[in-house]
Amino acid sequence: MQLALASGRCGLPAPRRPAASRRPSARGPVVPSVLEINKPASTANGSRKLDLADEMTQLLKYRLAAPNADTDKLYQSVAWSVHNRLVDAFDKTQEHWKKEDPKHVYYLSAEFLMGRTLTNAVHNMGLQGEYAQALKQFGETLEGVHGAETDAALGNGGLGRLAACFLDSMATLDLPGWGYGIRYRYGMFKQAIKDGLQVELPDYWLDNGNPWEIRRPETRFKVGFYGKLDGDKWVPDEEVIAEAYDVPIPGYGTKTCSNLRLWDALPLVELDLDAFNAGQYEKAVEQKRKADDIAAVLYPNDATEYGKELRLKQQFFFVSASLQDTIARYLEKHSDLAGLPDKACFQMNDTHPTIAVAELMRLLIDVHGLPFDKAWAITTKSLAYTNHTVMPEALEKWPVAVMQKLLPRHMQLIEQINDAWLASVKVQPRDHAASKGAKLQAAKKAEREAAAAAAKEERAKAAAAALEAATTPEAKAAAEAAAKQAEEEAAAVLKALEEEDAKVDYVSEVLKSYSVIQENQWNKGEMLVNMAYLAVVGSFAVNGVAAIHSEIIKTDIFPQFVELTPEKFQNKTNGVTLRRWLAYCNPELSALITEALGTDAWVKDATLLAGLKPFAEDAAFRKRWRDVKFAKKAALAKHIKEVTGYEVSTQPMFDVQVKRIHEYKRQFMNAISIIYRYKKIKEMSPEERKKVVPRVCIFGGKAASAYYMAKKIVALLVAIAAKVNNDPEVGDLLKVVFLPNYNVSEAEVIIPAAELSQHISTAGTEASGTSNMKFALNGSFIIGTMDGANIEIGENTGFENLFIFGVKAEEINRLREERKDFKDYDPRWTEALEWVKAGAFGRADYFDDLVASVNDMTRGNDWFLLANDFASYMDAQDEVDKLYQDQEEWTRRSILYTAGNGFFSSDRTIDQYAKEIWNVQACRQA
Ligand code: NBG
């Protein structure tokens, strides 16, 4: 039984204690009789207070019915006991907020990548001492039961994890706010490696119950789909019930406990008894099956669009339920919906929840009877939108046909919104569309005339040559006639073009660029709803997630909107919670920091980390800093051994790249550099080998199930590991590890152990990155490009402490253009790639397309510029090796990473959102 969670159908487990230590408690039969546990424990002041160990005992017996408390059951008993305290804190906070009625922010997100809750909740509530004590009575520790918890992996990657960090910070800052999302029955798929390839297994994360949620059968809303429009009255022909589950979110060092409300989907009628009695068993449960589908899976969608109706259904489902819920709560205290923007701000996390623009309009107009204009004023004062990517494939566009079918009323409203919007663009101050149209027209004219002038010159040259070549008067006359004719023809062509041009309505051409509904450029005739444009039109604020990204969205993604409403566009550089990502995942470093600073206040005020700077100069402190890193490396080495069987020494540099596998993140470039390193080590003499800086190269990350190239990259990494690690010639000089099923819990073990971390995306493609911040805060060096938040990390740490390489974002377009004729490969690149091609890592055919994608301009065009950046990447790697040999200097700078990057606390980010977008103030209990 107790192993079911460890290995069962979940595939590879997250970090946890070895099986041998997961045994029934040493304390013998731990469950006393009912009589015994009913005896109240009295406290010093005589009140009847149940002590924690007793409470756990009760839980073991009555909730878990577990006479033999193994580690899993002990975990659950602690979890349910913590649950009780969370519910208390939750109730008090929500009551307080209800009474005070402050403005709330509602964070709408299709993803929340929460990870485990136990350690975080216990520490945030300051109960670690009490629970450690209670567990001691069962012969267990908090760290011991920690591993029995399954990650709540309701997210794909950075965007979902950011949402989870934001909830922690909102609660910590006492900001009234809830998250809203979907309670997926299956979270992010589990990744396993089979025969060297990634396989995806379902994530049955709810199998053992979930102590971290509260089911709310009393909070239900209907959500409709499909059906017909009768005028503007919508009659859906499919309806489901959204039922709420609340996940309490305790703040750190505060009484505030806020909420993540997740929706489950239920059928209106679970079983159609008539159909059943008539023997139509499938029909009898059809409604249930359809509802089940909605909250079943998280789309494994990192940066690729799945044109799935079901996905739009999911998006609408949770958005509709969340808006209905917030409006209902607003109306408990207020009667006029015009005041909604004073009490609620909805932050749309990427394009996934942006159907909220149309749904809020529908609720206000159809359900609450407001006129369009009034509804629009409320909507545009309540919604804000965060963009998280510039990848065109991830900026969702829904075919009008799909929207029309699934949400006919919303499509109608989107058309009305668009019409009103375009009409307003037309009458913008200074006749914006007209003057822009005139400019466009003038530009086209100039282009035409320049082409005509060039052609004329060509012709004149040809005529002159013909004339010169003509020796007889007849030939001369013929040449003159030909020249004249050519001139007349050219004039006719120009005239025709001008006539065509006169027919073009330049104002409407301009308006097209603003339109929310656009033609599919790859499939003429198909019309699409551009959800990002809908979000921009419907929001009062639009933000990017790092300084460079916020500029790129202004210049490349929404420039036309910026012209009209520059004040809407903002930057909110991402951050991470220092609780989970430093204090709890690295208690050893945390203790050292607290000792040095003389306070643990940095956990809540990250700017205090700057106080570590002088300690970088202190040799004794540096030694202790190194000792902590070493201990974390040892823990990771142990984990690597347990999971992969590979034995790695703790002496080499731990070099890490963990993140979703994506071509733009360029794990392939890292792989090629490792192959080159490996090849060179093999060619070296024993003397030369002594000079090599040994490394353990660690990878982790999932490839989206349908992402062809990403899966090949995983396979290549696994193949390199198999070859290198089994090559006795190389020994400890190089080891390569692919840790399967990278998730939050894996990250918590990997990040504190890293000495170098790689953030090497093609400049301009990674919106921000957030693991770069986690690594930096844990004293890991960064090798990276001038991309996303790397740039701001450089500004905070001092660029001299980062290993920056590669081209800049502004050079990318030109280089992509030039690559058509690119031949100038770095010889190291070619040598390593040739080796892959020759089958040194097996599967030469399988890797062929991957190699071609970067090396064959006819089959791929190295779109992400790996070959282009390779030489400077290798140079940067040489610098890394050089610095690592000077451990004192390395450690000195490692301390500066932690000291310099307090800026990247999500508390800072959330404080900025609250002040600069949401206008939400703290509401704290006395
Ligand atoms: C991701 C970006 C990351 C960024 C996170 C959080 C999506 C769509 N975007 O660079 O790729 O750090 O969002 O903002 O997942």
Automatic annotation (TrEMBL):
The lineage of its organism: Eukaryota, Viridiplantae, Chlorophyta, core chlorophytes, Trebouxiophyceae. Residues 1-29 are annotated as: Disordered. One of its GO terms (molecular function) is pyridoxal phosphate binding. Keywords: Allosteric enzyme, Carbohydrate metabolism, Coiled coil, Glycosyltransferase, Pyridoxal phosphate, Transferase. The modification N6-(pyridoxal phosphate)lysine is found at K774. This is Alpha-1,4 glucan phosphorylase. CDD domains: GT35_Glycogen_Phosphorylase. Allosteric enzyme that catalyzes the rate-limiting step in glycogen catabolism, the phosphorolytic cleavage of glycogen to produce glucose-1-phosphate, and plays a central role in maintaining cellular and organismal glucose homeostasis. Signal peptide: none annotated. Belongs to the glycogen phosphorylase family. Residues 13-27 have a biased composition (Low complexity). NCBIfam families: P_ylase (TIGR02093). SUPFAM superfamilies: UDP-Glycosyltransferase/glycogen phosphorylase. GO terms for cellular component: cytoplasm. Its cofactor is pyridoxal 5'-phosphate. Residues 443-503 form a coiled coil. GO terms for biological process: glycogen catabolic process. It catalyses: [(1->4)-alpha-D-glucosyl](n) + phosphate = [(1->4)-alpha-D-glucosyl](n-1) + alpha-D-glucose 1-phosphate. Transmembrane segments: none annotated. It comes from Chlorella ohadii. It comes from the Eukaryota. Its EC number is 2.4.1.1.
